Each structure stands twice: as C-alpha cells, then as structure tokens.
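Practice problem: predict the structure.
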Amino acid sequence: MVEQKYYPLIDIQNKNEVVCVENLFSNEELSKIISIGNSLEKIKGFVGEVEAGDIETVRKSNINFLDHEDYNWIYNKLCIAINHVNTTNFNKILYGLEPLQYSEYDSEYDGFYGIHVDVNPDTQLALRRSLSFSMQLSEDNTYTGGDLKIYFKDKTCVSDRRYGTITFFDSSYPHEVTKVSSGLRKSLVGWVLGPRV
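Answer:
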C-alpha cells in the first residue's frame, strides 16, 4: 500500500493556506473515477450569478455531478482527507460535502475558468461553502496550460499537477483555471460546507 502524504504548498506564519494530499486514491481507484466521469453526460459549466449569454466570457468547461448515494466509496475516502487536513491546518467547523463535480477543460474550446470565489457571502442559507478542493485526474504531461491558481495575501499558489493529488484551500480565496492551450484537463472538484458567518 502506498503511503498517503499530506503537505503544505505554502506556509505563512505557521498556517498552511493551501494544502495538498497525495496517494489518497490508488491508481486503480483513480481510473475508476475517470471512467465514471467519462460515462456521465456532460453539461456546460455554469456560474450562478452570471447571465446565460455571458457565461463563456467567465467559464468554458464541461461538467457533471456524482451523486453521493451512488459513489459512497469516493465520498468516504475524501472525508478521511478532509478531516485530517481540517484538523491539522484549517480548524474550521464543517458539516458536509456538496455533490462532487467532475470537470473537463478541453483545448478544443479553450477551456478555462476565470478568477472567482466559491462562496457566496450574500447567501441566506444557514450553511455555505467553507473549504474547497480539486483532485487532479489528468497526467501532467497530457495537457498544457490549465493551471489551478489560488490567490491570497498578495501571494499566488499554483496547484500541484501530479496525478491524483488533491489541493485544499479556503473557499473565500480567489482562484482560477488558466486556459488549456493543448490537451484535456480533468478534475474532481468539491466543496465542504460550514456555518454562514
């Protein structure tokens, strides 16, 4: 069994602002997740507050969602990493996961997602997105561009592109996926809910 590794990408004043987890899923499990993603009918990525006609100025991607009941084994394993990363780095009050999003950014349509945050501060719901993560489902050498960049405290962090690596960060941090200039970038994206503060 491969040892799971947890490590910070950047350490600011002893607080890890962006944390990566590698080897949570085996190569066989990653292949199974990709097969699941490939089997889903894709829809165009959407943005909640953007008018339908303007979405492609903000985001070009194809997505779908993995229902919790059908893919319990993925959610259960991710919860292990979420609990560890939160306990050792973020210390947030967390309640549960939104449905996981399988995402594709293809160079055929210049796939990208402009700078945005995952949390809506105006929401009237009791819970809101608190911790975001993205799991790399493409080998680094199969595409160019498509970097996940996270911005905070005048710093820029480029996410680890190694296959299977999961990058965790605060949902309030601005971030983007740069334009994919060749190939296809695949990822599994998730949001962990916490109290609205």
